[in-house]
Automatic annotation (TrEMBL):
Pfam family, one: cNMP_binding
Gene3D superfamilies reported in the protein's UniProt record: Jelly Rolls
Name used for this protein in its record: Cyclic nucleotide-binding domain-containing protein
Cyclic nucleotide-binding domain span: 13-79
InterPro entries given in the database record: cNMP-bd_dom (IPR000595), cNMP-bd_dom_sf (IPR018490), RmlC-like_jellyroll (IPR014710)
């Protein structure tokens, strides 16, 4: 399959009016989107995390990779155009170029978040507040092991599995 950014891509484009919820937090979907033009707000628990404006950016890539509900809502901030990859799970499993592009995106995000956490750690290491715990947060982040799909219970160790 051609990569979504190639001219011969088989995936259709869809116009999204401003204000439209493209992906709803906590809902399952087997759609992945590639931003062609416009902008989308990424919103988690009612808080706007970031606005994505870069053409070629993936939207909704985590859910098909983890076979999980969406971790955030994606709302069109402007009239936008996206490319629709469906079924996303199958496309990610069968298209090495698509999988690599998503892996690179996630690696860049992890690199950015880690750099931010290190900066916080350096700023607040000797302050004595909860922000001084960044070394523990970084260690936990680096220790993360894959969780089996559909594992029962909470991700928190202090909450029993029901």
């Amino acid at each position: 399959m051609p990569h979504p950014s190639s001219p011969a891509s088989p995936w259709p484009e869809r116009a999204i009016p401003a204000g439209t919820v493209l992906i709803r937090e906590a809902e399952r979907s087997d759609h992945l989107y590639v931003l062609r033009q416009g902008a989308f707000d990424i919103v988690r628990a009612g808080v706007r995390i970031v606005q994505v404006r870069e053409a070629g950016a993936f939207l909704g890539e985590i859910a098909p990779l983890l076979d999980a509900p969406a971790s955030a809502s994606v709302v069109a901030a402007t009239d936008s155009l996206v490319q629709v990859i469906h079924p996303a799970g199958a496309a990610v499993r069968s298209d090495p170029a698509l999988t690599l592009a998503i892996a690179q995106l996630l690696a860049r995000r992890l690199q950015t978040v880690t750099a931010y956490l290190v900066d916080l750690q350096q700023q607040y290491a000797n302050i004595g507040t909860h922000l001084a715990l960044m070394d523990q947060v970084l260690a936990r982040l680096m220790e993360q092991q894959p969780r089996p799909p559909h594992a029962p219970g909470s991700e928190r160790a202090d909450v029993p599995d029901y």
